[in-house]
Amino acid sequence: MLNKHIVVLISGNGSNLQAIIDAINTHNIKATITAVISNQANAYGLKRANLAGIETHIIDHTHYATRKLFDQSLMKVIDQYHPDIIVLAGFMRILTSDFVMHYSGKLINIHPSLLPLYRGLNTHKRALEDGATQHGASVHFVTPELDAGAVLIQGLVVVKKSDNEKTLSNRVHQIEHIIYPQAVKLLVNNQVELKANRIYINNQYLQQPKQYRLENN
Which residues make beta-bridge pairs with 156? Predict the structure, then answer.
């Protein structure tokens, strides 16, 4: 099997980046992260990448007059690495349709809700306000419509009566660190194909996302 190349886009802490780095280091994922790119110069994830010996780039979106110009600059850097997979790991930018379509089928994101519930921001707050009994995270393919791409894997956590946004967020992060490497592994192993916003695993249509539950929740 050829070694797959991954480019990871971040804006902040990079804990999901670290989970993927750890899975590669333990040979659970047979791939190489060839670059980590951030739109924030102070993103801690850049330090994680440096410690792992991964090339980093900073592309500050505030230096560009339009979203389109920023995305074009981002694409030029990404394409230098000829990635097989582009992973959004806390990348806090809405991407243009041109960018998304350029990487269609190999651009994935993780969102802190059980999609299609709670697209967009403040997902934990909204789940608590709704009295949800379960919450979680979803790994999905990126499409031009925000948080609307086909979902590959979901991680579920129970919402406790004692939860606040911080405690719920902490547990969702725990399940994210489990399911994101699992999703990357499926793509690296050529088990996943996206056709017309439908996911096929080993040539079988995935009717429902794969689901994992947080142990000792």
Answer: 136, 213
